[in-house]
């Protein structure tokens, strides 16, 4: 079993408005509702890749829709109920001027007691898991050391933890030495305290994290592919050339590909291929869609991996 934790789930509401105007009455021509939050997206991708997955995290009174969606997809979920409503993120697509506006809420107020309940829930469920994915932002009321604390606690059980977060949540998480992290270049730059651009700069910063005890640092670079650092080798994964329809959720599919490979004991090169193929499958589709297994099987054959000698 693979477990994903979504501490800050969201209902994503996409409004399609032609000629969207600020400060005016706008008419919505179509709207789409989606179950969002990074851990939930990772779970949908993992399910499509054929894995058993369980979703943990918080869920507010307005979140029944998300549980129904997961249920329909055959994804088990055991969320800790909280008193406050979860976020509703509004996305506005203007099809006339081709603009995309994202209005994201920060997240619900959660009490100390609710956080304790989530920690107990993670502790109980990970006994049935070999791999756990901690993904996404923390609600503002949750201590930035949350991921670090959870990693310390569950690592002792021999479970491999993948962390995909940003800012202080990632910084404190790294200190607890998860098995793997997947920052994008911007997130790694935050950790480094300077803007990283060139591959050698990214490798230098990533290697510091490897030397501190994280086993895999995969740095995604959007349309430029990714760099995967381990204590043995450094891999450069070329992007696969496809017709890009939307990049939302590419990182979550990449994380899912890695979790799939680690969980199924695939060799590192094979695991990298899964991650690259799954994320490419997502960018080929509009909106927040999960990868398709058919695409992944075809795209896997197209992944080119180079090995970079350590300088
Ligand atoms: N424009 C693109 N063309 C080809 N592949 C892409 C493109 N954008 C993203 N990808 C694929 O998706 C992977 C992850 O993308 P990215 O670096 O954008 O993740 P992210 O910033 O974490 O995204 P997210 O918003 O989901 O958190 C890349 O390493 C690459 O394999
Ligand atoms: Mg990301």
TrEMBL record:
<comment type="similarity">
    <text>Belongs to the carbohydrate kinase pfkB family.</text>
</comment>
<dbReference type="InterPro" id="IPR022463">
    <property type="entry name" value="1-PFruKinase"/>
</dbReference>
<dbReference type="Pfam" id="PF00294">
    <property type="entry name" value="PfkB"/>
</dbReference>
<dbReference type="GO" id="GO:0008662">
    <property type="term" value="F:1-phosphofructokinase activity"/>
</dbReference>
<feature type="domain" description="Carbohydrate kinase PfkB">
    <location>
        <begin position="22"/>
        <end position="292"/>
    </location>
</feature>
<comment type="function">
    <text>Catalyzes the ATP-dependent phosphorylation of fructose-l-phosphate to fructose-l,6-bisphosphate.</text>
</comment>
<dbReference type="GO" id="GO:0044281">
    <property type="term" value="P:small molecule metabolic process"/>
</dbReference>
<dbReference type="GO" id="GO:0005988">
    <property type="term" value="P:lactose metabolic process"/>
</dbReference>
<protein>
    <recommendedName>
        <fullName>Tagatose-6-phosphate kinase</fullName>
        <ecNumber>2.7.1.144</ecNumber>
    </recommendedName>
</protein>
<keyword id="KW-0067">ATP-binding</keyword>
<dbReference type="GO" id="GO:0005829">
    <property type="term" value="C:cytosol"/>
</dbReference>
<keyword id="KW-0547">Nucleotide-binding</keyword>
<comment type="pathway">
    <text>Carbohydrate metabolism; D-tagatose 6-phosphate degradation; D-glyceraldehyde 3-phosphate and glycerone phosphate from D-tagatose 6-phosphate: step 1/2.</text>
</comment>
<comment type="similarity">
    <text>Belongs to the carbohydrate kinase PfkB family. LacC subfamily.</text>
</comment>
<dbReference type="GO" id="GO:2001059">
    <property type="term" value="P:D-tagatose 6-phosphate catabolic process"/>
</dbReference>
<dbReference type="GO" id="GO:0016052">
    <property type="term" value="P:carbohydrate catabolic process"/>
</dbReference>
<dbReference type="GO" id="GO:0005524">
    <property type="term" value="F:ATP binding"/>
</dbReference>
<dbReference type="GO" id="GO:0009024">
    <property type="term" value="F:tagatose-6-phosphate kinase activity"/>
</dbReference>
<keyword id="KW-0808">Transferase</keyword>
<dbReference type="InterPro" id="IPR029056">
    <property type="entry name" value="Ribokinase-like"/>
</dbReference>
<dbReference type="InterPro" id="IPR011611">
    <property type="entry name" value="PfkB_dom"/>
</dbReference>
<dbReference type="InterPro" id="IPR002173">
    <property type="entry name" value="Carboh/pur_kinase_PfkB_CS"/>
</dbReference>
<keyword id="KW-0423">Lactose metabolism</keyword>
<keyword id="KW-0418">Kinase</keyword>
<dbReference type="InterPro" id="IPR017583">
    <property type="entry name" value="Tagatose/fructose_Pkinase"/>
</dbReference>
């Amino acid at each position: 079993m693979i477990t994903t934790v979504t501490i800050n789930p969201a209902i994503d509401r996409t409004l399609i408005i032609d000629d969207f105007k600020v400060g005016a009455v706008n008419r919505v021509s179509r709207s789409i509702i989606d179950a969002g939050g990074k851990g939930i997206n990772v779970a949908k991708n993992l399910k499509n890749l054929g894995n058993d997955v369980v979703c943990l995290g918080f869920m507010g009174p307005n979140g029944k829709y998300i549980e129904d969606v997961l249920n329909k997809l055959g994804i088990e979920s055991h969320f800790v109920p909280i008193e406050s409503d979860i976020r509703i993120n509004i996305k506005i697509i203007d099809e006339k001027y081709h603009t995309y506006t994202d209005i994201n809420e920060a997240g619900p107020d959660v009490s100390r007691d609710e956080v304790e309940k989530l920690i107990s829930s993670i502790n109980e469920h990970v006994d049935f898991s070999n791999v756990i994915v901690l993904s996404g932002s923390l609600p503002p009321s949750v201590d930035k050391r949350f991921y670090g604390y959870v990693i310390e606690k569950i690592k002792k059980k021999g479970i491999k933890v993948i962390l995909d977060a940003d800012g202080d949540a990632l910084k404190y998480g790294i200190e607890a030495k998860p098995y793997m992290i997947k920052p994008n270049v911007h997130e790694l730059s935050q950790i480094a305290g300077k803007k990283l651009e060139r591959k050698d700069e990214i490798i230098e910063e990533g290697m510091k994290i490897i030397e501190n005890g994280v086993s895999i640092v995969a740095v995604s670079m959007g349309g430029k592919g990714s760099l995967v650092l381990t204590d043995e080798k450094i891999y450069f994964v070329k992007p696969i050339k496809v017709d890009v329809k939307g990049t939302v959720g590419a990182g979550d599919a990449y994380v899912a590909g890695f979790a799939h490979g680690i969980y199924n004991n695939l060799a590192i090169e094979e695991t990298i291929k899964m991650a690259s193929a799954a994320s490419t499958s997502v960018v080929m589709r509009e909106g927040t869609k999960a990868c398709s297994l058919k695409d992944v099987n075809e795209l896997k054959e197209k992944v080119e991996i180079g090995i970079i000698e350590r300088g």
